[in-house]
Amino acid sequence: MGNAILYIEDNPDNMMLVKRALEARGYVLLEAFNGIAGVELAEREDVDLILLDINLPDIDGYEVARRVRASKKYALAYTPIIAITANALKGDAEKALSAGCDVYMSKPINIRELWARVEAFVPAPEGRDN
How many structural domains does the chain have? Predict the structure, then answer.
């Protein structure tokens, strides 16, 4: 297993925060700033995990998750998806899970929780002492 993580997020500040946090642990972060670009990147590149904002400017994260799961690229049916969203209404977590996400995290992003969630699916790269 590799260490490539795709983050689909339209907020540049959130993107930078997650990029710095994950690269500090040795992961490679691929960036997409809208849903359609994220789906295309997932289909083009080999990714081990997808971090997915729900509120995107074109298609929402629920639709992104559904498209990833329905992709002709077989591996995407099983690639873990972590929804990261400011949506905190009752039912939002269930909606994300039913769309194909594996885990639901709320914003603001807690870096320690992010590391733990990511490492549960994709172990930190070899040679990295955590």
Answer: 1
The pLDDT tens digits for 9-66 are 999 999 999 999 999 999 999 999 999 999 999 999 999 999 999 999 999 999 999 9
Q: Which domain holds residue 102?
A: 4-73+89-118
pTM for the whole thing? 0.93
Is 79 a domain residue? no
Q: If residue 105 lies in a helix (H) or strand (E), which one and from where to where? A: strand 103-106
Give CA–CA dist 109/18, Å, rounded. Answer: 8
Residue 43 exposed, middle or buried by CB count within 10 Å (0-12, 13-18, 19+): middle
Average of pLDDT values for 1-6?
83
Here the CATH number for the domain that contains residue 46 is 3.40.50.2300
